[in-house]
Specification:
Length: 296
């Protein structure tokens, strides 16, 4: 068989799937199918066969370092004493903010452009895992679960949202993520100023500043945490990702919910399929009106 002038095109394909039988049925040789358990949600799948593209892009040595960094955090979380267990302590703080102080959001700001995708990653990890209103045994949760995770990168966010964080009437726990060593290709002074900005924002949130002019006063006593990495390499990144995974799991265990399902994302997909099949006649008037306005 030839397709696109490639002899044996299926010999060039590797399938990474939770449904190996479907891959074989599609024509992929079973020796080229890399399975993973269907219980692994996408947000937890980096360490499974789904990590193959990352291994190919980074090279095996870097990917192995990523795995080892995660494994180090795994061991710390599993065997570390509770009083010094970093993911567990972070989860305790998360629940303090949501349960005791009634905070509904958590802000994360990465003071390093290399971590610009950290917040979108955390949004899926934390909100898809712990955005639940029922316990693992099907009972009403009866209290707040995961807060809304949001944020941005460095000084860009300072000019966009920090006004509310410092002087707004809504209490928002803030988490800064910074790296001591910058990229070699950048001016060292640039990275020094980034770090100073991160540290200064945390100090301002904590201490505040009094003023006779109400609009110029900072109340202070605003909670923040700084995660300071010595460097950002594959090993450290693996440990950082695993830290957030274990923190999310610890939150779920303390809440009594299941962090591995995601039924909340399915209903919209089901309705979209219904609309695509032309079977949306029983939908609400608002949705029907939108369909008519879009001439669908």
């Amino acid at each position: 068989m030839r397709a696109g002038d490639v002899a044996d095109p299926y010999g060039q394909v590797i399938a990474v799937t939770a449904d190996p039988e479907a891959a074989v049925a599609a024509g992929i040789d079973e020796s080229r199918v890399l399975p993973f358990a269907d219980s692994i949600g996408g947000r937890y799948s980096l360490w499974s066969a789904v990590g193959l593209p990352a291994a190919l892009a980074l090279g095996w040595q870097a990917f192995e370092e990523l795995l080892e960094g995660a494994a180090e955090m795994d061991r710390h979380f599993r065997y570390g004493e509770a009083a010094s267990n970093v993911p567990l302590l972070a989860a305790f703080a998360d629940l303090l903010y949501t349960q005791k102080l009634k905070c509904q959001t958590r802000a994360v700001f990465a003071y390093d452009e290399r971590l610009r995708l950290l917040v979108p990653y955390l949004q899926q990890l934390e909100m898809e895992s712990n955005g639940k209103s029922a316990t693992a045994d099907g009972q009403p949760l009866g209290r707040q679960s995961a807060p809304i995770t949001w944020g941005g990168t460095g000084t860009d966010a300072q000019h966009a949202v920090f006004q509310l964080l410092h002087q707004g009437s809504i209490l928002v726990p803030v988490e800064f993520v910074a790296v001591t060593e910058g990229q070699d290709s950048l001016d060292p002074d640039h990275h020094i100023h980034l770090l100073l900005n991160a540290f200064a924002q945390g100090a301002a949130l904590m201490s505040g500043k009094e003023s006779d002019a109400p609009a110029q006063g900072y109340p202070g006593n605003r909670p923040s945490t700084t995660v300071l990495l010595n460097q950002l390499d594959a090993r450290t990144l693996g440990a950082l990702i695993a830290f957030y995974e274990h923190r999310t799991f610890a939150n779920a265990a303390l809440l009594g919910i299941n962090p591995f399902d995601q039924f909340g994302v399915e209903l919209g997909k089901q309705i979209a399929r219904t609309l695509a099949e032309g079977e949306g006649k029983d939908l609400d008037p608002s949705t029907r009106a939108l369909m008519e306005r879009a001439e669908l």
